[in-house]
């Protein structure tokens, strides 16, 4: 239909699916709520991945509740995290020739299990180096609507790590950033490298490679720790800044929307940090890097008005569009949003970033300071142009449309819609025609 879905939150007592408490939604049209409210899975927006559905006002029979509980139990991973940690110990004790990884089941195999996987594809001679880079061993879950696992290009990952080390952080809460976590973990064995990381991610395959102190199975859309109170406590302990080891949270969530659900979980993680040491933190917030596309800027600022968007373009390995190429580079739309003072976030000059003394932040080479706006206005790295009618800078490919009374793409249709676009929040177009996505 024409309506959009609005998230109403995650009320206490919400029913659960295998991914933890469900979220409450309502269909909206023209900005008005319409129809019955319903619960749906927080993590999977593709109903093929989780088809949980319940009307808010529905009475669920005892029998259905019992069936649901059983279903949720049956849809938990076949091994617990503790079992996986044990299995790992046994695995590394094996000679190289006996170390197999089943590619179909995405699982490290112990010799007794070979038989069961005999007609599956597997990798042999799994080296210690491979075990230290699970993100290379596991295939990325690219399912757009659910996992959207886009891994950092080495250059971007290295940049992030150096940046946070230079900023003095010694602990990283890696929320949905397995590759950053892995880079930190594999360096942690080196001398003079004192940074530690805790990975929170919904991808349980990682529990095969990390202990309970290194990985928590976590859903960032409903702040659900699958490991219960013990996992909560692990996270709390990690956030406690012993001996002045400062913590930063780095997150790179799937881009498919639900910004309010993410923001609500991140606020809960921030609150956890704040509660760990009441005296020291005063009015401070846990430092954070939220990695997300620039066209979500206004949505993020709705929830975190003190955040700023950095010009750095985050590149990915397995994303055709967001890759850094030598020629004809497709510019990545992905940026870092942070509550740190922008001037502290130093961007690499060798990649063309420069410091704007007026804006007091690093900007990309194409981002010209506009004298009228008095700021470096480009969001996408290209040079933007100032429109006197709109009284702001706009993309170079836009022109001012007198019908719409704003700047937009040349070949748009002048239909008006009252409700704002789901992606950029602006009126005048729908999500499918959002100029930010062009
Ligand atoms: N660029 C990052 C990966 C980002 S991809 C890196 O290279 O480290 C998004 C990550 O979020 C994936 O690891 C995915 O498993 C995780 N994720 C997806 N949905 C999630 C959810 N509901 N809760 C927690 N993590 C989730
Ligand atoms: Zn198998
Ligand atoms: Zn301007
Ligand atoms: Zn204009
Ligand atoms: Zn128009």
What does this 3D model show about the protein?
The protein is of the alpha+beta class and 438 residues long. It folds into 3 domains: 4-75, no CATH class; 81-126; 154-365, Rossmann fold (3-Layer(aba) Sandwich). 22% of the residues lie in helices and 23% in strands. The protein has 10 helices and 25 strands. The chain is globular. It starts with a strand and ends in a 29-residue tail after the last strand. One zinc ion is lined by residues 370, 372-373, 377, 386, 392-393.
Question: How would you state the average pLDDT, rounded?
Answer: 90
Kindly provide the radius of gyration, computed on alpha-carbon positions and rounded to a whole number of angstroms. Answer: 23 Å
Shape field: globular
Strand order of the largest sheet: 13-12-11-10-14-15-17-16
- Beta fraction of the residues? 15-25%
Record field, number of beta strands:
25
Q: Helical content, roughly?
A: 10-25%
Number of domains: 3
Distance between the first and last residues' Cα: 23 Å
CATH architecture of the largest domain: 3-Layer(aba) Sandwich
Characterize the main sheet: 8 strands, mixed
Oligomeric state of the chains present here:
single chain
The name of the CATH topology of the largest domain is Rossmann fold
